[in-house]
Structures are given as C-alpha cells and as structure tokens.
Amino acid sequence: MIGGGYVGLVSGACFAEFGTDVAIVETDPVRLAALREGRIPIYEPGLDKLVADNVAAGRLTFGDDIEQAVQAAEAIFIAVGTPSRRGDGHADLRYVYAAAEQIAKSMKNYAVVVTKSTVPVGTGRQVAELIRRVRPELDFDVASNPEFLREGNAIGDFMRPDRVVIGTDTTKPGGTQRAMEVMRQLYRPLYLIEAPVLFTSLETAELVKYAANSFLAMKVTFINEIADLCERVGAEVHDVARGIGLDNRIGRKFLHPGPGFGGSCFPKDTLALTRIAQDAGSPMRLIETTIDINDRRKIHMAERVIAANGGSVANTTIGVLGLTFKHQTDDMREASSIPILRRLAEEGAHLRAFDPAGMQSARSVLPKTLQYCEDALDAATGADILLVLTEWNEFRALSPARLRKLMKGDVIVDLRNIWEPMAMRELGFRYQSVGRP
C-alpha cells in the first residue's frame, strides 16, 4: 500500500484484518514515526485498535522502502493524495505518477498495480504506459479500485460495503483474468457476506467514484435549497426530507440540511469532474451549479449570523461549537467553518471555539485571533451568540437551560439543527436553525 494517509491506512488495516499481509509505505518521516510508535495521525473511530491488533498479529507493517515492500506483493495499491491542482481544478497526479515510477523500478515479479486514489478517467492507462516505458519487460496488470469511505465510518464502509468496484484493462490482448483473480482473492471475505463486487473497465471504475460523490454532493445541495424554501413558506425541512427519502428511488441518506458540504472528497471531486467533462466536450452543468451554490451558501451562513444579531457582530463574542466539516473526524479540508469564521472575524467578532477532535488541525486555517476553549461549555460562557457548525453528539447532550445561564446574550444560530426550536425559544433564546419554522 503506497501511502499511509487516510485511504491507505484504513484500507491497509482492513485488508490486514481480512488476513492479508500488508506493507504500508509512507515516506513522510513524521507520519511514519507515529505509525511505528502506534500513534494514529488521523482521527477515525476504531482505527487505532484495528491497526494495533494487526501489527501485533504480524500482518501489518510500516516502512519507507518501496522496493522492499513490493518484492513479494501480488497487488500494489497506489493510495497517495490527488488534491485539486492550483489554478485549474484538475486533480494533481504528480504523486500518483511518482509512485508508479518507483513501483516500476522496484518490481521483480508479476503484480497488479491498483489505483486506490481518486483519479481522473484515463489515469490507469497512463500508469500502465509509464510502467512500460520504465520497464518494458515487466509482467503486470493495472486496475482501478476506488474507495468509498466516509470519514467517521470508514472501517464499517470497508468491511460492510454497499459495493466494491474493480476496473481492469478490458482491451488487453488475452484478457485480464489473472488480475481479476488476484482482486477476487483480496476481497474474498466480502464474497462470503454477499457484498456486490462489480468488475468493469478501467475508465468506468475511475468515473464511478467521481459520479457517486458528485451525485451525493448534488443531493446535499438540493436539500439545502429546499431548507431555504422551507424557511420562506413555513414548512419543516426534516419532514420534507422524510417524505421524499421514504421513496426508495431517492433514499434517506444525504438529506440533512446544513451550512454546505466540505471535506476531502466532495469539493475536490465535483471540481475535478467538471474539468474532466469540459475537456471531453461534455460539460456537467448540474455539477458546476452545485459547486457554485455550495460556495455561496457558506458565505450566506456568515451573513445569517450577522443578521441574527441585528446586522453587526463588531465587538460581539461568538461561541462556536464545532469546526471540522462533519462530526467523527478531525478533517478541516473545505470545512464550512473556514469561510464563515473568517467573515465573522473580518466583521470584528471575538471568536471562542471548541471542537472535540479538530482544534489542532484548525489552527493553520482559521483566524489567528480565534480562541480555543477547553470544552463546549467554556466556549458558550459569556457568549453573546452561540453558533453550531458541526453536529458532534456531545453538543446534542448539552443542557439548554445551562447554556442560558452561561451565555451573556440570547442568540443561537444552529446550522446543524441539533436542538428543538420550540424548546429553545421557551427558554428565552432567539433561536435560528436551518429549514425549520
């Protein structure tokens, strides 16, 4: 497994749990040292124990030597980052190609080289061409095996997936039965629980990941716009979501209104898909609009906070509950908190925040004037406004009556709908949520 980041570490640990010997290659010395010492550099529930158990069992190892790691490997996964490229939004594939070149130089025997990273259509073939150029004599196959891991539930998603998608080079003379058999053996435990395993072409598998994330991002954006309409007409967005989600053609998931999507996948993958489509001469207008609406929404959420306080937050203390893009993660990438809190700081607000997992990650991307608190009650103490940005369960458990005593003001802007509006207003709060009367 080339890459010990989120995808590589979770996937490697889960393959090891299946009984496969896995060597994770990580070239970042700080991250590698942490992994070798048993410290997990990312926050993901259950991952620390899964890693520790499989290291103890001898099935999972960490190192920085690709040549040593791939010697006896039947499958070599590329799980490096593919961030948005500066300036044009395309996926940056420099790390993928660098890994492929190192793999080519290090391989001795037949193996399947698998892209686990999210990569544009055509990348698998480019990887194959690169390997052939470096080592024309090598016997190998390429495959695409996109990940569908939700942060906060990644282990469950890997162990009990909705589906596994595996793309191989269906144009290869003689076929790719050997590669398909290697991949079947890797995922054999999932066949036993009858998880769907879909074999496709390389291009199809690569496009599936972008299409899936973009559709879900569009679904999130749709319910956010419905929430805005609910506020104007007096409807209840959660009831609307239930009403449409019970239709099996739509489904209940990803119909939770909020301040806009973020994280490591949706923003990056929607943007990359629009660039892929533009280059192919088949623009994705729905996805382009989804991106625009989502970006505007985050700024609008800051304006809502300002409006809730009478049109100004200058010299106002705002207690902030949650910073990460969602609960059960420390990921701050494209989090709604970033543009919202920057805007509030620009307007002269004093910001005091607490997040159970993300405060260390937040320091490099949020305003330097933001004060980090010991817990949620500390963030609420003396606040003129309380702003909920992430739906951590411990925030739901807070006593509203206690908040009322601790806060200086009475304004709550709940962008995750964690409390009931009527109950909050009965306590004297000027309470606003998303899509509810």
Automatic annotation (TrEMBL):
The active site is at C265 (nucleophile). It catalyses: UDP-alpha-D-glucose + 2 NAD(+) + H2O = UDP-alpha-D-glucuronate + 2 NADH + 3 H(+). Pathway: Nucleotide-sugar biosynthesis; UDP-alpha-D-glucuronate biosynthesis; UDP-alpha-D-glucuronate from UDP-alpha-D-glucose: step 1/1. Substrate binds at F148, L149, R150, E151, K209, F254, L255, H256, P257, G258, G262, K326. GO terms for biological process: polysaccharide biosynthetic process; UDP-glucuronate biosynthetic process. Residues 319-421 form the UDP-glucose/GDP-mannose dehydrogenase C-terminal domain. Its EC number is 1.1.1.22. NAD(+) binds at R31, T82, T118, E151, K268, R333. SMART domains: UDPG_MGDP_dh_C (SM00984). GO terms for molecular function: NAD binding; UDP-glucose 6-dehydrogenase activity. It is an enzyme of class 1 (oxidoreductase). InterPro entries: 6-PGluconate_DH-like_C_sf, NAD(P)-bd_dom_sf, UDP-Glc/GDP-Man, UDP-Glc/GDP-Man_DH_C, UDP-Glc/GDP-Man_DH_C_sf, UDP-Glc/GDP-Man_DH_dimer, UDP-Glc/GDP-Man_DH_N, UDPglc_DH_bac. Pfam families: UDPG_MGDP_dh, UDPG_MGDP_dh_C, UDPG_MGDP_dh_N. It comes from the Bacteria. The keyword Nucleotide-binding does not apply. Keywords: NAD, Oxidoreductase. PANTHER family: UDP-GLUCOSE 6-DEHYDROGENASE TUAD. NCBIfam families: NDP-sugDHase (TIGR03026). Belongs to the UDP-glucose/GDP-mannose dehydrogenase family. This is UDP-glucose 6-dehydrogenase. It comes from Gluconacetobacter tumulicola.
